[in-house]
Amino acid sequence: MAKKVKSRMISVRLLSMAMTGFFYTFTRPRTSRPMSMLKYDPVVRKKVLFLEQKRRFK
Amino acid sequence: MAAVNMKYVELAKQLHPRLQRFLAKYPPDQILPTSTRTNTIKDGAKPNPFLPHKHPITGKWHDPEYSLRRQAELVKLAREEGVEELLPFTSKGTEERIRHRVEHGLKVRGTGVGQKVKGHLHERMLAARMEKRREAMLGMPKLVREWRKTGKSKWTKYPR
């Protein structure tokens, strides 16, 4: 049986570095580098650094 | 002396009939001359009609003469008339109730003296979580500076 094809795009979770547990979800190509950006965290009401969480599955 | 006594008798007659009957049946030591003490059992010990007591001969336990409901009613009447200290000890008495409330608190567990309300797990962890968040926010400018300096493409420190 043929191996299941991996999708080209993956959805990733960008976790707030303010340790609030708040996160954004984005889709990016599987082959690109992990995402990171400055974005608003509504819990601390400030722009903070968001970093991509390591993917649990696989 | 007789006149003073008559005054007290008149005052006593103004009490609620239920209180009068109770005090006649169980006269407190304060208003009783030592020579005429009644209903004594052994060694001058008097059974408290508000408490269960052990029969001195048969050794059986007898229920209180007055139910908790009637005790509470008597205490309420006595409190209104200002003669609560003439009643024997009862768990319905004002002082005892206050003492119990202070020691054991409300029905909510942990509200007494030296006790703590347990609370839900998220409530117990709240302080620790806020502390962690505060630390993270204090370190945020430094982290952002570092991240800007390194650049998106070379950044390797990703959270678990």
Give a description of the structure.
Chain A has 58 residues and is mostly beta strands. Chain A has one domain: Rubrerythrin, domain 2 (Single Sheet). Helices cover 0% and strands 48% of the residues of chain A. In chain A, strand 3 and strand 4 form a beta hairpin. Chain A is elongated, with a radius of gyration of 14 Å. By secondary structure, chain B is mostly helical. In chain B, strands 1-2 form a two-stranded antiparallel ribbon. In chain B, a hairpin with a 6-residue loop joins strand 1 and strand 2. The interface between A and B is medium-sized, with 18 and 16 residues.
CATH superfamily of chain A: Ribosomal protein L33
User: How many distinct folded domains of chain B?
Assistant: 2
Structural class of chain B: mainly alpha
Most extensive interface, chain pair and sizes: A-B, 18 and 16 residues
Beta-strand content estimate of chain B: under 5%
Any low-confidence stretches of chain A, pLDDT <50, length ≥5? none
Amount of helix of chain A: under 10%
Residue runs with pLDDT of under 50 for 5 or more positions of chain B:
none
